[in-house]
């Protein structure tokens, strides 16, 4: 008898839970039915399989040589082909209103949870709104802008699915998000933009055709096998400067000195100058790196690669050295020292002057000081060292910021 | 009981504050208060209710971003990251909301909504940092669990970030972690 009494609350709870779950599910079903019923000259409605969905919505976003079909292949290997994608799109203003009425009815645009699916991301930017509701078995995405609305529902966790595939591809979304970790919170919200219009992705593709900051990040990840891989931006240097000269407790709690700007608020106008430096010392890393960049040593003087022109080239006793210049003072240098199993790569985006200018913008009021005169960046086999000597009266540093990569000296030894 | 009293005080103070700011219409004030009450009834604190309500106001010329804990974790897992940074566990993070004005009108409207914070009238969060540098004003509010950061350039740029589940201590700990996550505002 006692056992039955104990069991009763459990059964009650179970029934309530089941009932709630059924209600949620039936609400979701009703919602989908209503949305599908909107199909007309004003509203397009399509049920797609995984492959067509990826090709139409995701594949174009990959600018790393991988296509949507690569993802499909990888997901096919996961044996999950039962996912269906309902894609509903307004074709005109009337269609927009029709879809919006249904969304409004189910409170989709305002809620932090719909049909038991929690809100994962919501972004609004210049009148464009993206909302993603996500749980293990459902993804509901709503993209709205200028009286156009697009709704995607799928019976899987689309982020998980894509993560699996992207992980295998090693590049792509992984990089896209990796950039966030290296940069800022703001990029967090960009996951919503994976679903943005094709135009934007095309722009991204075009930007990716030259060496730029985006490509540097990808190159850095590709070079993970190397013993030293450093990507240095003016922001990194500025941060070290701030930490050294204005310890956190001092400036965070008591305020900045009058002439110091808050580095986090600054944004460098224009392209980000940056330096990527990679060293391979070990035999395996050396082998991979020389294989990777061997073609650069084989280019003829004045020969070109990807917008970069060979300006210096030298081969001596098996040692090789090549330097290429690109647009806007960008530079690529590679040194190969086979007797030491050592290969070094240096990629500069923008000139040292640009780097220095950005550094000043990130840190100090330009009229009152110039920290670049105090800053010496040295990189060798051990890694990067940013020194800011206290004695700033070193007039020999007339060019401001000084980089010391010890490339040519090393080659000429 | 305490919460109800606070909501009541808030209800009385907010219209005054809003009107004083002269940036919101009567209807906007009314709807804002109604939403705060709605969230208050659900058990959210006044500050959080306030922020949630502003998110629903959908102000023109103000960009808004929200990210949930689950999404946050999922993204960390995507990049093989960890919610533990240099021994500082940030697993308590619940969600992040960010508002950023993109024009003069958006700036004024958002400032009007945020008026109680500028006037230090918020009762469930304590001001931890206030820094004026020329026209630029930075403020950090916190209670035991949540963080509110406001950056105001006094002209067109106003950024408000509310991080549910991050204490001020944690905020200080994870700032400037080399090679780790950096929260930029």
Q: What would you note in describing this structure?
A:
The complex is a heterodimer of chains A (413) and B (185). With 413 residues, chain A is an alpha+beta fold. In chain A, 38% of the residues lie in helices and 25% in strands. In chain A, the strands form 3 sheets. Chain A has a 7-stranded antiparallel β-sheet. In chain A, strands 8-9-14-13-12-11-10 form a 7-stranded antiparallel β-sheet. Chain A is elongated, with a radius of gyration of 28 Å. The termini of chain A are far apart. Mean pLDDT of chain B is 76; it is low at 176-185. The longest helix of chain B has 20 residues, at 2-21. Chain B has 185 residues and is of the alpha+beta class. In chain B, 43% of the residues lie in helices and 25% in strands. Chain B has one domain (2-174). Chain B has helices at 2-21, 26-41, 46-57, 69-78, 104-113, 115-118, 168-174; strands at 62-68, 84-85, 88-89, 95-101, 126-133, 136-142, 147-152, 158-164. Chain B is globular. Chain B has a 6-stranded antiparallel β-sheet with strand order 1-4-8-7-6-5. In chain B, strands 2-3 form a two-stranded antiparallel ribbon. Classes of the chains: A alpha+beta (413), B alpha+beta (185).
Question: TL;DR?
Answer:
With 413 residues, chain A is of the alpha+beta class.
List the helices and strands and how they pair.
The complex is a heterodimer of chains A (413) and B (185).
Chain A: H1 2-36, E1 43-48, H2 50-57, H3 68-77, E2 85-90, H4 93-105, E3 113-114, E4 117-125, E5 128-134, E6 139-145, E7 148-154, H5 158-169, H6 173-182, H7 198-207, H8 213-222, E8 228-232, H9 234-245, H10 248-254, E9 274-280, H11 283-297, E10 304-305, E11 308-316, E12 319-325, E13 331-337, E14 342-349, H12 352-363, E15 376-380, E16 383-387, E17 402-404, H13 408-412
Parallel strand pairs in A: 15-17
Antiparallel strand pairs in A: 1-2, 2-7, 3-4, 4-5, 5-6, 6-7, 8-9, 9-14, 10-11, 11-12, 12-13, 13-14, 15-16
Chain B: H1 2-21, H2 26-41, H3 46-57, E1 62-68, H4 69-78, E2 84-85, E3 88-89, E4 95-101, H5 104-113, H6 115-118, E5 126-133, E6 136-142, E7 147-152, E8 158-164, H7 168-174
Antiparallel strand pairs in B: 1-4, 2-3, 4-8, 5-6, 6-7, 7-8
Helix pairs in contact in B: 1-2, 2-3
